[in-house]
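Q&A log
Question type: sequence-to-structure
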Amino acid sequence: MTRLAPPPLSARSRRSLDARLTAWVVAGVLLATAATTTTASATAQPGPADGPVVTRAGLDPALVAGRGADVPFLEQEAEQAVTTGTVLAPSRDAYTLAAEASGRSAVQLTEGEYVDFTLPADADAITVRYSIPDAPEGGGITSPLDVRVLRAHRGHLTPAGPARTLRLTSEYAWLYNAYPFTNDPQADLTQPDWWYPECACVPGTATPDWLVKPFRPSHFYDEQRLLLGKTYRAGDVVRLSVPRGATADRTTIDLLDSELVGRPDASPRGAVSVLRFGADPTGRRDSGAAFQRAVDWASANDRTLWIPAGTFQVNRHIVVDDVTVRGAGSWHSIVRGREVELAEPAPDGSVHTGVGFYGKYAEDGGSADVHLSGFAIVGDVRERIDTDQVNGIGGAMSDSTVSDLYIHRTKVGLWFDGPMSNTHVSDLVVTDQIGDGVNFHRGVTGSSVTNSFFRNTGDDALAMWAQTDQNSGNTFARNTVQTPVLANGIAIYGGRDITVEGNLVADPVREGSGLHAGARFGAEPFEGALTFRDNTTVRAGGLDLNWRIGLGSLWFYALDRSIDADITVTGDHYLDSTYNAIMLVTEFGVKDAYRIDGVQVRDVRVDGAGTSVLSARTAGTASFENVDVRNVGWAGVNNCGAFNWDFENGSEFTLADLGGNDGQTSTPWGDGPANWLTRYLPNVISCNDTPPVVAPPAPSPW
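Response status: OK
Response body:
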């Protein structure tokens, strides 16, 4: 396949490039001196000597250069800032605040405590990722957080502008129980006929003794954006503090993004404004009907539809076809809506509607030539109902583009139901979703998602699901995924000629991996080429809580059929994998029927794996070439094959050494510095169902 060129910088990224370059210079000088962190028992001494630590996915940006999305904001982790609060001990244990935090730690504040972030570049806007407790009965609470920008003057920090207050909320966080989850912390089991690892049983209709409520709390974090009203200078300090009388007894700050947004964009020549059709920019009146009239008129008259700066209340789907809709920028043009309960279920099973821009469904002919850019879609989704169509973008759109949007608090950011083709998504920020970030579902071809940022999705952040109709020729390239709470960072379920390239995936929490290819969920088979190239994962490869085994940062899974496409894994970096770097597994009930064959791994680096470089729990084959490893905790290969234990003939999984596989692993299968793979060739059984985990050191330059 033709190698995909890096995507060009968007207008948004070009506008911020000068500021970003300046910031990297500042950050490069200051990274060597990490900001002092203190506990609640000490007094912080913030000041101009304390420098900002800029990260990407909780890492030194140099470790992930050229991978992931080029975004206009700069990320700073609270645990690396100055604080009078308490730094949470790092953890990857599901159902904990630390595990769902970026970089796997955060800062907890109580009344009067603060965390100070020193701006690494000029900024006029911030995003705060936070968590506050749920209400005892569920449904969330609200609590204030004071925001003040300070400037060093004669050795002291003094106000550089007016104080602001963020109204934090947990109304969009805190899910409980088993899939599809509930907002009720006191709910009984939502799936009493499922097998539960907590009791190693199927509880049936009786409430088991082991059930402690709230059961399996998760999805703790939310984020809010704030325009600061003026531009503050690099070196100024953003102080986030909990005021006296706050409702929340604790406020957890995960990170702060700072950005130079600037003024709203001007209307393009010849565009027609939604104001002409009665839309209300104050958000007091529902503008849904006005938006639909405006879209229909712009489409019929071949005019661009303009959304000026303002907040517009839209509590319904806006159906788009053969139309261009542009806004003044995602910080300025905001389309916000309430979730509305339907009087009776819709034909598709929806029991709610809400804000979203939808192409016509494929069975109705689909939409084409749709171009959406430069605005925000902010929803009101507080629970997961899989039949609900309450996504930010939906339906079918061919020959279309979606770019420069901010999508927040919808069910799925973009759920495309094909067949559809030639649609390209780029330069998005998608956060705090109940479900996926993007899903190419059913017959999506020749389409892509590039240079986009996803944080805190409730399911796969980026997915292609070839259910019923084959997906083909699609690409996910140069995207950043952080902290998907459930499932995978990037997941491919079937498809022909699929490419996953240049992405950065960090901190998946439970039942998933950084990168995943699964023959499951009734997907069509993998055909042609399946390519993973130049991706980086960090702190991935976690524990599957149902199987109770460690996954891989890259995970292949055969459940419905064998996987035997032309699979290449080239140039990936797997950093600080909790368990394995790569895992191949067939569901135990079909282990003698299905295989995973032909996986080719080359030019890969593994820097830290708690257990193994490769875990094979399937019949099949794989080859390795120029795979360099270090800081591997247990063994180079954990080869269980299909568990038929033929010690005379070896495992059903066979490995090929194509040369250049360097590195060293720990006992009991350590190989010395020459070749981590040699001991296991071609099919030595080296199986341990639960090998000991040795936490690796933090990633460092190779």
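Response note: The chain is about 5% helix and 35% strand.
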